[in-house]
């Protein structure tokens, strides 16, 4: 990933925090879980925040962090050619890393359950970014397929056995 895109994301997030009266430094790092799940992680330094400010910025089930991340991805990629567009992940106080590990563990458990029982499983209460992560995590299983079903805010990820026709 070009350093320029990481710096652009870093500067944008620092400006957003400044305007929200929550000034903080932001560090950036390129992370690649696999070729389909690579992004620039913009980590908000939490040292100057109170626990209450951290909780407000994360929001209920990560909803505020998700909104900031959505804004970052939309604003920073608007008008950019596809080959320059970048996925940005906003991290604060280890929330994203913990949630990603939790989602990966959950995805493996559900895949094994579906393999064993043959019964599809609906995962509820996932953000669109989390649904994308689970879709990607489960691509390694040849006998499992996923799809999103329903409409926001009640969109669900369905995991089922792949039946070859």
Summarize the structure.
The chain has 5 helices and 6 strands.
* End-to-end gap: 40 Å
Biggest sheet statistics: 3 strands, mixed
**Number of individual domains:** 2
The fold-level CATH name of the largest domain is: GMP Synthetase, Chain A, domain 3
Instruction: Report the top-level CATH class of the largest domain.
Output: Alpha Beta
Strand content: 15-25%
List the helices and strands and how they pair.
Elements: H1 3-19, E1 26-32, E2 38-44, H2 51-58, H3 63-77, E3 88-92, H4 95-117, E4 121-123, H5 128-137, E5 144-149, E6 156-161
Parallel strand pairs: 2-3
Antiparallel strand pairs: 1-2, 4-6, 5-6
Helix pairs in contact: 4-5
Can you tell me about this structure?
- With 165 residues, the protein is an alpha+beta fold.
- It has 2 domains: 3-93, 2-Layer Sandwich (GMP Synthetase, Chain A, domain 3), CATH 3.30.300.20; 100-161, 2-Layer Sandwich (Ribosomal Protein S8, Chain: A, domain 1).
- The chain has 5 helices and 6 strands.
- The chain has helices at 3-19, 51-58, 63-77, 95-117, 128-137, and strands at 26-32, 38-44, 88-92, 121-123, 144-149, 156-161.
- It has a 3-stranded mixed beta sheet with strand order 1-2-3, sandwiched between helices. It has a 3-stranded antiparallel beta sheet with strand order 4-6-5, covered by helices on one side.
- A hairpin with a 6-residue loop joins strand 5 and strand 6.
- The longest helix has 23 residues, at 95-117.
- The chain starts with a helix and ends with a strand.
- The model has no long low-confidence stretch (mean pLDDT 91).
């Amino acid at each position: 990933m070009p350093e320029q895109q990481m710096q652009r994301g870093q500067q944008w997030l620092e400006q957003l925090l400044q305007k929200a009266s929550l000034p903080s430094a932001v560090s950036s790092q390129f992370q690649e879980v696999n070729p389909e799940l690579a992004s620039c992680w913009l980590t908000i330094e939490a040292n100057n925040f109170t626990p209450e400010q951290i909780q407000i910025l994360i929001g209920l089930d990560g909803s505020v962090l998700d909104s900031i991340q959505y804004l970052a991805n939309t604003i920073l990629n608007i008008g950019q050619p596809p080959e320059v567009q970048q996925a940005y992940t906003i991290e604060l106080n280890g929330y994203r890393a913990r949630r990603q590990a939790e989602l990966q563990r959950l995805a493996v458990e559900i895949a094994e359950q579906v393999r064993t029982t043959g019964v599809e499983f609906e995962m509820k209460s996932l953000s669109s970014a989390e649904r994308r992560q689970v879709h990607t995590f489960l691509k390694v299983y040849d006998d499992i397929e996923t799809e999103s079903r329903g409409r926001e805010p009640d969109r669900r990820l369905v995991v089922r056995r792949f039946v070859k026709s």
